[in-house]
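Record filed here:
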Amino acid sequence: MNYERSYFEKKDILIIDDMPDNLRVLSSLLTREGYGVRKALNWYMALTACQTLLPDLILLDIMMPEVDGYEICRRLKACRLTADIPVIFISALEDVFDKVKAFQVGGVDYITKPFEFEEVLVRVENQLALRTARLEILKLNTELENRVNERTSQLEKALYKLQQEINQRQQLQTKLLDIALHDSLTGLPNRVLFIKRLEQALNRAKLESDYHFAVLFLDCDRFKVVNNSLGHLVGDELLIAIARRLQASLSPFDSLARFGGDEFAILLENITDISTAIEVAECILKKLSQPFKLFRYEVFINASIGINWGNHNYEKSEYLLRDADTAMYRAKALGKARYHVFDPAMHQEVSQLLELENDLRRAVERQEFVVHYQPIICITTGAIAGFEALIRWQHPTKGLVYPTAFIPIAEETGLINHINIWVLQSACQTLRLLQNHPATNKNLNSLTISVNLSPRLFSLPNFLAEIDQILDETKINPANLELEITESLLIENSDVIKTILYELKERKIKLVMDDFGTGYSSLSYLHSFSLNTLKIDKSFVKRMQENQQNMGLVPAIIGIAHSMGMIVIAEGVETQHQLTQLKNLKCDFAQGLLFSGAIEPELVLNLIATAPQW
């Protein structure tokens, strides 16, 4: 059944009255006004009419047999389908009580008989207009509710989708954060996360006087050898195994992190004193000393550990870690496979070394170096046979700095290559000046200059070209140039080294083994590389005078050298007794404070001019 008609459709009015005349009159009048009119004489006819088609308006008489108008209205209002149909009572009853009762049972209006048709028509129009408005409002409300429900559903779906995206982003953010804070290989916390935990420990130590902690910094001593020789896959497998052993050495309350490469850091919390940290370090060293049985290899490795007590006076957690790192490097310097506890004096040493490195870099740029020359004496004649070029650093504030203070740093930083080439060039220029100076003896054409070479120079691809350029610029006789090398270079025994030494010999340059006997001495090196000269280290010369039993090594070195056609230079000769002993042992040359220390270039000519004899 459809009761939702538009306002312009023909409205249907149901008249319920037991008087046929009344029905006829009202029906005729309303039909003439364009309304559709149906008539019912009693309740049953009215019910049938409503079931057939719901009317838009009902005109209802009160006084009817069996079921009066009040009861009919009650029944209509009680039915869901007819409850909204407006009912206008038309009755001859004029009592106020009757009118009130009519409104109480659900009537919307009350017309008293006899009625004026104009009044009936106006009231009918008003109620129909109100009903049309109510139906329109109901329709709009229904449409609005549907749209609201549809929009709500859309919003719920959008909200659900948004929540899913938020959850996914949170999961992704958590995953990315986990990746950002953990090492991808071992799954351990990385440097960033470790620094955060260390910072928390430091802040806690500042607030709680009974809270103590320590930092351990660990570096594997032989990992690079394994990684380079067996490959990165084996290296990764070894790092994972190392991480597992470290975890097994710690409590669940300790923090272990991998900093990259073969470096690990450990945070020990709630400990009583430094002895606890030392016990952990000893346990770690013991566990790491056991062989690692990997998939295809069995590998041995050890580690150096730096320990730093968590002093609450530190301003930043990074400084704690820095000092633990410093202690670790001290452990390496002391022989590796050990631990070392940080001492504040170590930081001062490191700072001084860093300052020295910075100054050294500037010194290379500003050419703050000078070369001094120590004479080499022919023991047989007592005359000067040559000079050894020894570098000095003319520091702008510290004065003259000797090579023992800066050469190790130059070696480590790679600055030694620039310095060494400069010394070689300066020495060759000095040799050229000496041999061409009019005040010198013409017999000085045999004078030699000896220059120490760093092993790092031999890794330069243009090393030989640098030598050739220096020889070409200075025009010296290559036979007067002696290059001193150490046993550490020869121990590599590589084809590249052999080739470079062969090329130097082809240029008539003499090769000198410096400090023979202090390193990995092997006669095979002497055979393989065809050296010209051996230099006996000053420590052996010193022992000759202190203990006659130690002289056995010096005669042996001299005998070996002479048997292989090499000459021998003794370093560090300080007494006449030492010189006499060396002369008796048929040593060829000597240098040391007995003759002269290293002197400035401008004093070399004066020394030569005096023609000293020892």
In short: The two ends are 141 Å apart (CA to CA). Confidence is low (pLDDT under 50) at residues 1-8.
